[in-house]
């Protein structure tokens, strides 16, 4: 035992390699804030503390929740923008363009990131309905209201804004074209234009976020498990981890993978309530939401 300690280091050094718990994260935030003289941003904390975004998310849903737990106020540049400000800017862009803003067009000329509106109102396609409720009865927005689809017929008077037709327009589903690919909801998170709809999309998104989440990918293969990686567990300390990619976590069960030989399921949606406790789950939809909130 003494020889092992001499080779691997002191017991205190070994203890430092354990995964950060909530208290360690809170203490690290407070300590870094004192060093910097201001509340650290999400990016500053990851860069200086050696604690990955993935570890933070295991303890806190959003970065600002961790900041508040440390007794600090979130930085003003990360303050939540009000719905009114978002919708007014969307409406101004619609007025200038003479039609409903596209994601690409709004990104070029709008005040905010399209992803901010998408997360606030559920999807880009739901923003017009949110604007309709916001602008109802406000004469200054009458010209923009007239641009909303289906709520003014050609050569007819305006429809009742509370009619089933108007209130359900954003939920209309059209018949698909058999020779065209399909896409997930618009997300425009970094370089990803749409949410993943299959396992391949999950693999791509994980590759985009691996470094930010504290992973180094060693190998990817067809057989089980899909990926061999190392993840940072402490400053200057890494550990090997076996990863299986799935679109939904319960696909792991449906594909009848062995319950041993995999440390981590990386998925878009976690819906496996009976997932064995020894298998960790990284839900990328939650990661995207959390990172978008921290960058807002």
In short:
The chain is an alpha/beta fold. The chain has helices spanning 2-8, 11-15, 22-36, 42-49, 53-59, 63-69, 83-97, 103-109, 114-121, 127-135, 142-145, 164-167, 199-213, 251-254, 284-295; strands at 186-189, 192-194, 215-220, 227-234, 237-248, 264-269, 280-283. It has three domains: 2-78, no CATH class; 83-151, no CATH class; 186-295, no CATH class.
Description of the structure:
This protein is α/β, with parallel strands linked by helices. It has 3 domains: 2-78, no CATH class; 83-151, no CATH class; 186-295, no CATH class. 43% of the residues lie in helices and 15% in strands. It has 15 helices and 7 strands. The strands form 2 sheets. A 5-stranded mixed sheet has the order 3-4-5-6-7. Strand 3 and strand 4 (227-234) form a beta hairpin. Helix 7 (83-97) packs across helix 10. The protein is globular, with a radius of gyration of 24 Å. The chain starts with a helix and ends with a helix. The model is unreliable at 1-18 and 151-171 (pLDDT under 50).
**Percentage of residues in helical conformation:** 40-55%
Strand order of the largest sheet: 3-4-5-6-7
Structural class: alpha/beta
Count of alpha and pi helical runs: 15
The figure for the number of domains is 3
């Amino acid at each position: 035992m003494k020889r092992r300690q001499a080779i691997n280091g002191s017991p205190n050094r070994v203890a430092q390699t354990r995964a950060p718990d909530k208290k360690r994260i809170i203490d690290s935030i407070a300590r870094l804030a004192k060093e910097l003289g201001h509340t650290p941003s999400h990016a500053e904390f990851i860069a200086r503390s050696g604690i990955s975004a993935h570890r933070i998310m295991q303890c806190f849903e959003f970065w600002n929740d961790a900041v508040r737990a440390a007794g600090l106020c979130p930085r003003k540049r990360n303050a939540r923008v009000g719905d009114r400000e978002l919708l007014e800017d969307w409406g101004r862009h619609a007025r200038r363009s003479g039609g409903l803003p596209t994601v690409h067009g709004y990104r070029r000329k709008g005040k905010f990131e399209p992803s901010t509106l998408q997360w606030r109102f559920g999807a880009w396609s739901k923003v017009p309905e949110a604007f309709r409720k916001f602008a109802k009865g406000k004469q200054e927005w009458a010209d923009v209201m007239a641009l909303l689809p289906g709520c003014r017929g050609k050569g007819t008077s305006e429809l009742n804004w509370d009619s089933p037709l108007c209130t359900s327009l954003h939920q209309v589903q059209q018949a698909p074209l058999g020779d065209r690919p399909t896409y997930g909801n618009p997300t425009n998170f970094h370089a990803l234009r749409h949410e993943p709809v299959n396992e391949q999309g999950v693999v791509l998104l994980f590759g985009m976020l691996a470094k930010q989440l504290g992973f180094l990918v060693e190998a990817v293969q067809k057989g089980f498990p899909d990926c061999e990686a190392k993840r940072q567990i402490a400053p200057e300390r890494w550990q090997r981890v076996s990863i299986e990619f799935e679109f939904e976590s319960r696909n792991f069960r449906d594909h009848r993978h062995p319950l041993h030989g995999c440390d981590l399921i990386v998925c878009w949606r976690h819906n496996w309530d009976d997932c064995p406790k020894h298998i960790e789950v990284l839900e990328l939809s939650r990661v995207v939401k959390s990172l978008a909130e921290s960058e807002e």
